[in-house]
Design goal:
It is built from 9 helices and 9 strands. The chain is globular and about 50 Å long. The protein has a single domain, classed as Hypothetical Protein Pfu-838710-001 (Beta Barrel), CATH 2.40.320.10. The protein is an alpha+beta fold. Strands 1-5-6-4-3-2-7-8-9 form a 9-stranded mixed β-barrel, surrounded by 4 helices.
Length: 249
């Protein structure tokens, strides 16, 4: 959440045209998740339970090509599947796709890296996801025709659907809070892996016009929590992919 300000300070940060939003993210250093959550006034009993699966080949070929396939089973909410491409040039996404309510073009800002992504989401009935996970339906059919067409139109990589496997699940708790002195909601996500390791991520979104101002406030929030993050961070998605891919190799 601090990287946006740091890049802007040295003139290196540029917000590309055509974005819907900017998301600032910070992975909390290992061992400090509970402390930081407490400082933010987070009560785990208020959190929404999620179960997240990714889909890739055992060699993570999709990830290497910038393709992310994800399914989410969400407590008391609609379940969904998402296809995401990154990096991508916003101008390369045609108007017919851009005007869709289920399409998001976003700049993800993580310590040491800023990358544009385009995501197309589809609501799926709960049983549809379970059928794919149980092998009763092809994984390809879990994603809609429009999602598969979006991949074909915007990526040179052809997904080898017969080789794609489910990677997961990850047990996730998610809630949103408005911390004291901060202008908007901060999402707090706790990802627990089968070995009981935990990743806690803080994130907040802003419009492109608000990004720098929100980034400055985010830096103040991070400093007030006593967080010092050095070097590049491993995102929760990358950890999940590597963790579960090992079981298929």
């Amino acid at each position: 959440m601090v990287d946006l300000v740091e890049q802007a300070g040295d003139g290196a940060f540029v917000v590309p045209e055509g974005l819907d939003s900017v998301e600032l993210k910070l992975t909390v250093p290992e061992g400090r998740g509970t402390e930081v959550a407490h400082a933010l006034g987070v009560d785990p009993l208020d959190a929404q339970i999620r179960q997240i699966y990714f889909f890739d080949t055992p060699a993570l070929e999709l990830n290497a090509a910038g393709v992310v396939l994800r399914a989410r089973r969400i407590q008391a909410a609609e379940h969904d599947c998402v296809v995401k491409l990154r990096p991508i040039e916003p101008a390369g996404v045609g108007p017919a796709w851009r005007k869709r309510d289920d399409m998001t073009i976003e700049l993800d800002v993580v310590k040491g890296k800023s990358v544009c992504s385009a995501s197309l989401k589809a609501v799926r009935r709960p049983e549809r996801i379970l059928e794919a996970l149980r092998g009763e339906k092809p994984i390809r059919k879990l994603f809609t025709k429009d999602q598969r067409a979006f991949l074909a139109a915007h990526s040179r990589f052809e997904v080898p659907w017969d080789d794609v496997v489910a990677l997961g699940p990850i047990f996730v708790l998610k809630l949103k809070r408005v911390p004291d002195g901060f202008p908007r909601k901060v999402a707090v996500e706790l990802w627990r892996y089968p070995d009981n390791s935990i990743v806690v991520e803080l994130s907040t979104r802003a419009t492109p016009d608000e990004a720098l101002e929100v980034g400055m406030k985010a830096r103040e929030l991070v400093e007030s929590l006593g967080l010092q993050v050095e070097g590049e961070q491993t995102t929760k998605t990358q950890k999940a992919l590597r963790y579960f891919a090992r079981a298929h190799q």
